[in-house]
What does this fold into?
Amino acid sequence: MEKLKELIKLGNINEIESYLSLNHQISDGDIKNNTFDLLIYTIKNASSIPIVKVILDNYQQLYKNLNYSLINGNSPLASALSINNFEISDLFIKKHADINYINGNNDTILFYLYKHKILNKESLAYIIKNGVNINALDIHDKSFLSYIIIDKEYDLLETLFLQYTLYTKDCILNLLYLSENNNACSTKKLKQLLSNGIIQSDRLHISFMDVAEACKHQSLNFIKRYIETGISYEFFSNHSFLSDLLCTLYNKNKIDVFQYLIEKGTQFNQFDYLNQFDSKGNLLIYYIITNNDIKMTDYIIRKGAMINVRGQLNGWYHVIYYALHNEPLFKFLVKHGADLFISDVEYNKILNSGKFLQNFNVSFYNVDEEASTFYSACKNGNLKIVKHLLQTNIPNIHKGLCYACGNGNMEVIKLLIDYNADVNYKNEPLAQACYLGDEKVVNLLLEQGAEPCPSVPPIKNYLTIAFKSNNKKLIEILLKHGARDIYCKNDDDETLLIYACKSGYEAMALHILTRYNDYPLESLDVKRNTALMYACQTGLFDAVQYLIKHGADPNRSNGCDETGLIMATRSGFLNVIEYLINCGININKRNKNGETALIIACKLGYIDIVKYLICHGVDTTISDFYCKLPLTYALKTKNKEIVESLLSIKETLKKDIINFETLKNQKVLLMYACKYNFKNVVEELIQHHADINKRNKKGETALNYACKYGNLDIVQYLIEQGANINNITNSGETILMYGILSEKTEIVELLMLYDVDWQKRNNEGNTAVMYACKLYKCDILEFLLYQGIDIDVVNHDGDHPLIYASQYGHKNSVKLLLDYDCNVDLKGAKGKTALMFSIYILTGKSFALTITRIYTKSSMHVSKIK
It folds into this structure.
């Protein structure tokens, strides 16, 4: 191999051929590997096409594909181009070497040559002519053009643009005409002709990044000469990118390029980029103001920069904040409409006095946008201040229109519309005017293009607003301009008709019903209510009549299984109920709780409705799902008229009905009658064979209820009718104990008169005397003691009557027990006597006498108590 390399260096083709013909054995791996290649070696050291051909011919299998590279990225074609040997390059291209080949380092031949500083203008021209992809990006996403712009490779730039510069057909024809006719042409005219006729070939793409790099690193003349075609309308549409570029140019003091770009933007009618935040969250105007540059501030304001915005330069401050310590700049900004976030009245004072800095105390940091002077002026109709602030672009002029419409400030509204405020901004201007009920403003907005039937959420149903305010004139204006949004639904699936009936707006409901024959009467909201159901609920009698006559189903039920009849009953609208019943509605329909209209009327005490339902054959024996009857609820509400009306129906007192138990506690009607003191009902029930000794879930009978709630007449009647006076509840309580709970001595005396068992204890071992001691009923206690009841009896916890009386502080009860010689030394459950409770628990002065009496009767001494 070394001998062959030496012969190649000497360039003697005959000796090379002789050497190769002698068939010297050289392995393929030595000829071509990752670090050495004989063909690339030959190109660099011989630069002779005949020798290159000899190598290619002798090693055809190795060099069948010329698109390969060494570990350093070099390839055969790149090697030939690096020495400007275009004959060898042509040979390789004929043998299918790819001019756009990408080496192992992910670089094209063009990038390889440039990065290794072996590219010159001749090789670049050759590469371009042979179809290189000049717009390819390297692994850093940079184009070749970007590299040579940043590195200021003017020879390569000149070559690049020369190769890609073409002329229009008109330009070429003009040049030919001048030549053939020998017409004189000045240098200036020729330059102008050529300049106007230049077009850039589509093959060369000047990206936004290329333009940006040129602006940052090249002169304005260079940009105008080479890059100007890349500064297009699309370039100025990339607001965020352009904002970053302008901020960088200003901070680098490249003012000529800076202003050139802004002027180009003006030509394209583009201004929004001046108000776009850069990647740091700041506006261009911030950098200019912080540099105290009034001249440039004036320039960009005239070009469309806004001064009433805020960004995050050192925090979320408004533009005006950065001028607070520069009085001339501050005055300049206020003069040009800076919003000071004070009231329009205060702002007016500042303008009139010219004293911009005195007593001014606004931080402009995170200031509430709603405090804007502009919004304040729009709200208050301050035309002068609104005009002043409109000198510069307002960030949200449309919201100002909403405020003006909400307050009916016609002159301000007209001015804002002249400044292109959006009359359909979030559908709010027209909505605000409708809420205000200002017909003139509504009419103006509609004439200026406000959409009467908005389709963009959040939808504002203007007709709904107008109906709610009962403004007929407003409704007429909306309809005149094409408002047809009566078919829309809100978030609760309510149509406008449902909403009207639900809200009780009968005029609105009838307007819809009479004007729109195809309106969906059976439409359901999320609760499965129809317009008819709501009309029944809110008592819209005329609407109910119209709906039913035009096909609405009165027997339809909602998600709670309630019909219009039940809803009308709950609201107490008798006239609606009468109409529904006359229309044949199911009078006995039950809702999901099993309630009928009658049960609901009884619950709510609607006597007229109950009577009407009874007159029209309602079933008084239907209970709800808790097994409670209409009579049950009538008794609970203590409504005597309803009770009498129900009792007038024979079926109400059927034996199987009156002994019907409620689901929860197994109460029967007789117990409710005893509890709520309806003696006549008690008598009726017993006469109709009510079970007088029926027990509920707790083991209580009707007599228990009568005793507990102190209804003496009923107690006596029940006993006379054979009620079990010695009934024991599940907890072991006697009728006498229930009588004591009533706190009525007469009931206790009556029970004792009928030989009630007064010695019986409950499940806890408590006696009737203990109940009396707990309740502090001295007259009952005295009556029991007089009967000779054992007063020293102890319950299961070890307590006795004196303990209870002492523990609860019942002084008179203690006195009575002492008078009947109770055992004062008897200990209770906690091992304490009554004296101990009196001292430790009830040591008030009012109990002092009792303590003394207990002490004198006790064999214990106070010193023994610990």
In short: The two ends are 120 Å apart (CA to CA). The beta strands are 165-167, 198-200, 310-311, 317-318. The longest strand covers residues 165-167. The domain at 761-866 is CATH 1.25.40.20 (Serine Threonine Protein Phosphatase 5, Tetratricopeptide repeat).
